[in-house]
Amino acid sequence: MRIALLLCAAGLVATACESREAGASEDASTAPSDTPSAGDASLEYDAGGHGEPNMDAGAQRDAAVSNTADASGAMGGSVDAASRDAGPMPMDAAVGDAGNVDMDELAADVAYDAFVKVFYTLHDGKGFFVNNSGTATANAWWTQAELIEMAIDAYERKPSDAYKTLLIQLVDGFVDVHSTDWSYNDFNDDISWMVIASLRAFLITNRPDFLSNAKQNWDVMYSRAWTSDYGGGLSWKVDVDSKNACVNGPGAIGAYLLFKATGEASYLNKAKAIYAWERKTLFDAKTGAVYDNVNPNGGDKWTFTYNSGTFIGAANYLYQETGDEAYLSDAKLAADFVKSQLSDADGLIKENDVSGDGAAFKPIMFRWLSKFVVDNDLQAEYLPWLQFNANRAWANRRLGDNISWNNWKQATPHRILDSHGAMATVQILQVVSPGGPEVVWYNSAPQDGRKAIEAERCDEKRGMTIEASEAGGEQLGGVTDQVWARYGQVDFGASAPSQLQARAAVAEAAGGSIEIHIDSLTGPVIGTLPLASTGSWTTYGDFSTTVSLVTGAHDIYLSFKSSPGKTYICNLNWIKFR
Predict the structure, then answer these.
(1) Looking at the DSSP assignment, which residues form a beta bridge with residue 535?
(2) Are the CB atoms for 45 and 51 separated by under 8 Å?
(3) pTM for the whole structure
(4) Mind listing the pLDDT tens digit for each residue in 511-551?
């Protein structure tokens, strides 16, 4: 068996957050459909309700980054339109195969590069991962920090100029939005996550500002978070009487990395103290459970994978530094708890959230537990289980774009997905090597182009909202000039359709057309659908146009064009080929 887990020993870290930010899975609107929505034309930063500044509205996700592709073709930046013409990335099993699948050597590259293609945007040399595949708005503070760590893991697995450039762009993008002083953020765990990401980036790049930002903000966080209440420990949030695992585990890791980066022994002492408090207060030394918090009511004994992950990560660092076997024993017990109690009967991790904070939990655990396994040569005990989870994740990816959501019990559907709700597969593939037990193939099947495809069930879009429809269900609204939507792997069948049908509402003051492209936004136009007024935004009509003869499965791009003098185009309900 080859070396099992490909993790760089330098500065492996984690990011997560207490479950308190209501991350939206789609940018759906409940606004009445008779008033078109403004869409998401600007590049804004989702600050998780913290009211942070917005990115410049002029950037688009498809801005070309010509200097970030390495010789092997790995993508390290946002992609230009030509990059979309490359078509689907390679896969290791046939579509619809009812047999088994396991990872090949390309899995980690394909998963990461596909994620970057769909979710990464760049503006003036500064980048971020968008909140979901239907918006240009960046992800929230702590989940953006976690996504940055995923990019760092990709670099540590496969060092390249492209991956290094991208992680630098991500850290610079975060600072561009949030500045270098993060003390205005009352969530101490938020600061801890980005401190870790910054320190990991420093260990790779030696950028002094990455270190200074981390040091300054960790010191501020520690000075306000560490109190004598409950015998010590870091508070979760300013003026909130709760001390949580989601800040103490990452706080200890951040302190240890500051010790490694600066050589200052005080940080090692603080790492030990934070860990000791968490172990005494939140760790069950009999079962290995890491409980969520302590508060005036006693505390909540919830067990989440990310809390176990950062506890394991801190214990492992301190064991590697001190040789104290107690740290090793703690980490082993916590890892066994995750494997036995936070996994189902088959060994699959139980957390399957695809939106909200919970979607970011298990990637953190896999990062830290994998590093612990590698550092201590524990592959024999944990590798088959880790590879089973990795194979399950890889087998669930979506046909065409190779995006996989975090629910590894179901094939990834054709719909708008949160970036952090699709990062668990990318993350585990960066830290667990190919091989291991084969699993049932659950890859998404092509969509039947001869049946109505709901307009809101696109895989990716820009510049529109998903909103309630007067015709029932939902629709694409706020449709303006130059916006677009992608529908992954629409199957035309062996006999080519000759017509596109659509149902839409077009107000008197609206109108335009839809260009239908195949395979990429700049791919061949197979037809153009004119949209004339139906009388109002709530009066729906049926439209049709002829299309060029196309067979087989293709990504379909709808590119909207407004009529001269018109701002809005339509509310689109569904499309169908026949």
Answers:
(1) 507
(2) no
(3) 0.81
(4) 999 999 999 999 999 999 999 999 999 999 999 999 999 99
